[in-house]
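Q: Here's a chain of 91 amino acids. Please give me its 3D structure as tokens.
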Amino acid sequence: MSKYLQTTNEGWGFYGTCLINGKNAKKEWNKAMKLLVEEQELSQEQARDLLDSKWGRHAANELDCGHSLKWQVETWRSYFTKSLLDIGYQG
């Protein structure tokens, strides 16, 4: 049994796109879940839902372009942090 929740979107999202792109989807899924849960402090449900979303599909495609998932998450976080600061969010 895996340490992390499994995908609910095997045909698309991150998992399905990894399969389509010829990657080891299970291995990439577990690496992505570890990054999101342990380093980004998302809950397993949040991480799974993010990876199963349109963002997950794009993230899997970016792996083929040489952009690590870690780089993508850091870019995503800094974009949203900047956007929230630009609109005056005080969190």
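Q: Can you summarize the key feature?
A: Helices lie at 13-20, 25-39, 44-51, 54-64, 69-86.
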